[in-house]
# Entry
Amino acid sequence: MNFIPDNIYHIYNQGNNKQQIFSSDEDYLIFLKIIRKCISPHAEIIAYCLMPNHFHFLIYADDRVNTMIKQGGLLIDLLTNGVRKLLSGYARIYNNLHNQTGSLFRQKTKYNCLSEITIPSNSINTHQDYYFNCFHYIHQNPLRAGLVKRLEDWEYSSFKDYALLRNGTICNKELASKFCSYDPENFIKTSYGIIPDNIINEFF
# Structure
C-alpha cells in the first residue's frame, strides 16, 4: 500500500478463501481494540464495518503517512505498517483462541483512493459523491448481507455512533461532515437510500 496525505481511502480485506474471521462477540471486540492501537494513531478513521468474513474502513490519510519506517528491507509508511500489524496481530490471537493455524486473511489488503478517481467530463458525479456513497455503502453491508433487518441492530460498525445511538470514539465525525455530508438529523433516513449499482461494482 502507498498512502498519500490529504486523501480518502476505502480499505478492505476478507478471510482467506472467504473463511470467517469473526466467530464470536469477543473476536469483534478484540479486533476493535487492535484498531485503536494500530490504525488510530496513524490516520483518521471516518467509518468502519466488521462483517463475519470481511471488513471495511473509510480512512483519511494526513501528514502522518509521510513518516517512514524500515520493515525488513523495505521502507513503508506508518499506516501501511499499522494495517499489517492489525491483521497479523489479530490473526495470531484468533488462531490461538480457535485452535487453528494458517493464513486468516487474504494476502493483499485492497485499497482504493477515492480522492484520485478520474471522473468523466460528462459525469454529474463529484468526488464528494464518491465519499458519500462509500460512507453509506460501508454501513449498509450488514443489511445487504441479510444479517439484520435494521442497520441499527448491527453492533460492529460505526453506524450506531453516527446515528447517535452509541457514544463511540473511533471515528472522526468532523471529517464525516466535511467529506461525506454527514448530517446527524437525517443520517438514519439517508443510510437506507439506494447506492447506484455502477458505483458498487466499480469501486467496492
